Amino acid sequence: MSAEFATASDTTLPLHVLSEDALEKWRAEQDASVQAWVEASGFTGGLGQALVVPGAEGKPVVALAGYGNDAARRRGRFHLAGAAARLPKGDYKIESGLPEDQSATEALGWLLAGYRFERYRDQIPMAAKLVAPEGIDAAHIAAVAQGEMLTRDLINTPASDMGPPDLEAAARKLAEQHGAKIDVTTGDALLENNLPMIHTVGRAADRAPRLIDMRWGDAGPKLTLVGKGVCFDTGGLNLKPGASMGLMKKDMGGAAAVLGLAHMIMATGLAVQLRVLIPAVENSVSGNAFRPGDILTSRKGLTVEINNTDAEGRLVLADALALADEDAPDQIISMATLTGAARVAVGPDLAPYYSDESAFVSALETAANSAADPVWRMPFHDAYEALIEPGIADLDNAPKGGFAGSITAALFLRRFVTESKYAHFDIYGWQPSDAPARPKGGAGQGTRALLAALPKLLDL
């Protein structure tokens, strides 16, 4: 799906963005017919309101978008997107009322409001198009929107059409688009290449497990993104109940997120040596499925006792992280729909992340605010290390007791990165209900914040 701004023309309508406290002053400056129309329409400047004002011949001559008040805006983001979705067909150019420091964010929100998932059914497109506000980097914003839309499309696609081979095909298409190199290790070749836990988790499925390895750029700092690509998670022999399985098409949300971020990085020409690693598997049930009580040996040599086959994401990520660490990049970032505990802690709207690097935290927190992409720092709490040590093996994939589930998962992953700076995102990857610029369905989380933070983080 494309994300493009309109080109200004003679038919472009001027759009005034009016907060509730600015409406009266603007209305007083208009002629009597405009004042009467605005009053009769019930337009108050409320957040998300939209109004087109006709001229003497009945044709629209100006449009208004409500911008609410401070309290309403604090409770959400992409405030202009709600009005954009209500405006009739046409091209619009913002003439007044939008704070300059919000132009880029609101322009992005407008583009994202135009997203439609159309693989299985035609959708009614958003009618209103925006001329890029002056002073913004329109190409950059369009690239960000395209990356987010890629992530949404991948997550929204059901596992019947988004298994490991399909995820590989999506990665290959992205690599071809940007001139990146890609290698894929599939099936028993995973064992031959010392990626045993990826093989073990995915071997029960009809569609073979694989590791996708994409590289782009030959100069600059080394950045490696690792995304969990569990294309469907039944829970394995520790089978999930039906209610918990319904959204498991999104368990490859980490892979979708890093592919979306990779598009943003490559499309904007960020001066990095980018590597993307995606362990793509299905956690299925068959006679050769791995079992509770099994002990697996990882690529790194650490042994892992399996106490729950439904804690499979950390297993496939562990091998991929160990491989990433061998290259000693300047920064490794993993993204995964890893634990329900993270959602219980912060809900679906925040992206919890783990980092011990103060520079990473500072850059990300600043960028998250400007990118309207909220994140929340969680602790690598060393005191909980004992919880992931079962005694019979080096590590436990599912500590008993249920305490600190997201933290213990992050600590588990950290054991596989020893040579590089490391940050981990335990994302949800799903918007549970419609919101401005964010329809119900697959969602990118943390990626826009990361893109904005990377130049400072990597000294670019």
Shape: elongated
Average of per-residue pLDDT values? 97
CATH class of the largest domain: Alpha Beta
Cα(first) to Cα(last) distance is 30 Å
Biggest beta-sheet profile:
9 strands, mixed
Count of DSSP helices?
16
**Total DSSP E strands:** 19
Report the CATH architecture of the largest domain.
Answer: 3-Layer(aba) Sandwich
Helix content: 25-40%
In short, what is this structure?
This protein is α/β, with parallel strands linked by helices and 460 residues long. The protein has helices at 23-28, 32-41, 70-74, 79-84, 103-113, 138-156, 164-178, 189-192, 196-202, 242-245, 253-267, 313-326, 340-346, 358-370, 405-414, 447-457; strands spanning 13-18, 50-54, 60-66, 90-96, 128-130, 181-186, 210-216, 222-227, 229-233, 273-283, 295-297, 303-305, 331-336, 351-355, 375-378, 395-396, 422-426, 430-431, 441-442. It folds into two domains: 13-136, Leucine Aminopeptidase, subunit E, domain 1, CATH 3.40.220.10; 142-457, Aminopeptidase (3-Layer(aba) Sandwich).
Folded structure, characterized:
This protein has helices spanning about 25-30, 30-40, 70-75, 80-85, 105-115, 140-155, 165-180, 190, 195-200, 240-245, 255-265, 315-325, 340-345, 360-370, 405-415, 445-455, and strands spanning about 15-20, 50-55, 60-65, 90-95, 130, 180-185, 210-215, 220-225, 230-235, 275-285, 295, 305, 330-335, 350-355, 375-380, 395, 420-425, 430, 440. It has about 450 residues and is α/β, with parallel strands linked by helices. It folds into 2 domains: about 15-135, Leucine Aminopeptidase, subunit E, domain 1 (3-Layer(aba) Sandwich), CATH 3.40.220.10; about 140-455, Zn peptidases (Aminopeptidase), CATH 3.40.630.10. Strands 6, 7, 8, 9, 10, 13, 14, 15 and 17 form a 9-stranded mixed beta sheet that branches. It has a 5-stranded mixed beta sheet with strand order 2-3-1-4-5, sandwiched between helices. Helix 7 (about 165-180) runs parallel beside helix 11 and helix 11 packs across helix 16 (about 445-455). The model has no long low-confidence stretch (mean pLDDT about 95). This is Leucyl aminopeptidase. InterPro entries: Leucine_aapep/pepB, Macro_dom-like, Peptidase_M17_C, Peptidase_M17_N_1. One of its GO terms (biological process) is proteolysis.
